[in-house]
Structures are given as structure tokens and as C-alpha cells.
Amino acid sequence: MGENTGDRGLEHVAGRVWLYPHDPDPDAIGASVAVIADERGSVLIDAGNSPAHAREVRRAIAAAGLPAPRWLVYTHHHWDHTWGACAWADVEVIAHASATALLAAEADRPWSHQYLRDQVTENPKLGPSFRARALAVPDFGELRIVLPHRTFTDTLTLPTGVVLRFVGGNHAPDSLVAVDPDSDVMLVGDCYFPPPFHLRTDADTPDLPMARRLLAERHAYFIDSHSAPRRTT
């Protein structure tokens, strides 16, 4: 039986930035994947939440006639942004330096549907995330967590002019933002979100000061991974 995809297709944002939109079902935890298209090779911002998700994005890139990805940037190490990486071939994976140890720890876990069930039994607050992982990855035999091939600590400019900048934050300590100056678009991942649900307290809220600082840079578009793009100018 062929893969049942539900592919959504790429949406053009501005300039050379395209977006495979987030899954509108919040229970699916399907982050968006951005494509910054360039004839020297496209830049992917995040990998998709599973190999199947990555294959959907790859088909959408081909259908749109965009150059194949050459670089894959993790905005942070969380599963819904990184678990699709093993389905991307011939890409250089780039992340903040602190992501390597975090992903290595995740790679050491014995991922399986039974492991997910056992973990939720021990900590029910993991339920929403782990149920979404079970739906995203029907076959854990094809999952391989890919560690970064290249890291940086402050900023990094890719050969296509895309600028990566470390911002950190409460959601994930390795969070970075990506800016395409040519298109005047900033992609922020989940950097200003509160911590993941299983780590969240009643006092945790979105980091609005961080969001305001980023918005103050006045790029034409501001895109997080679980919302529609925001036009800001």
C-alpha cells in the first residue's frame, strides 16, 4: 500500500521564501518547514516531524520546481523539528553548538511504540507529545536522529546569504532564528514559546520581550513554526 500523505503543498511567502505550513491540528504537533530557494541549493529551515513528513515536503519542493535542498537548519532540537532529517539526502545539517549533546541524548533513547507507552505511564504529562510522535512515526525502524554536521555559537551566514543567529530562550536552550535579507523574512522557530508542556509550570508564558525584540528588527514577515506567517510592515 502506498503512503497516505495528505500533502499540503508549498505556499509562497515573499521573495525566495516558501513555506510548507504547519499542521492545523494542534494534536498532530506538525511544525512548518520553510524553503529558502536558491540556484546554488535551497536552505531548509527545520526537517519535519518524521520521515513521512519530510517526504511530503520533498515532493512539494519538486512539484514547485524549486532547487533541491543543500542545507538543513534546525531551529532547535525538539522532535517535531528534527525527526524528519533522516529522510533528507545530500544536505548539510546545521544547528547551534548546544544542540549536539541534546540530540545525542535523544538518539540514545530506545524509541518504539512500547517505549512511548511506558514513558507516558511513568509521566502522564508526556501524553500529548508522545501520542503525536506515535502517530507521526508508524515504523520506528526508519527513524534515525541526525546530529548536526556543522554548528556555530553566535551567528553564521550561509553561502546563499541566509543569516542564522542564536537566541536561546525558555522553550529550548539551542533556539536560533534564520533571516533571509533578500526576502526580508525572519523565521523564528518556537524561540519565544513557553517550555514544552511536560516541563511547563503555571508561571510559564510566552516570552513576549523576546518576541518584541525580534519584531523590532522590522522584517516584512515574521514566521514561527506553528502559526501562519505574520506580515509586519
From TrEMBL:
Residues 30-226 form the Metallo-beta-lactamase domain. InterPro entries: Metallo-B-lactamas (IPR001279), NDM-1-like (IPR050855), RibonucZ/Hydroxyglut_hydro (IPR036866). SUPFAM superfamilies: Metallo-hydrolase/oxidoreductase. It comes from the Bacteria. PANTHER family: ACYL-COENZYME A THIOESTERASE MBLAC2, METALLO-BETA-LACTAMASE DOMAIN-CONTAINING. This is Beta-lactamase domain protein. The lineage of its organism: Bacteria, Bacillati, Actinomycetota, Actinomycetes, Propionibacteriales.
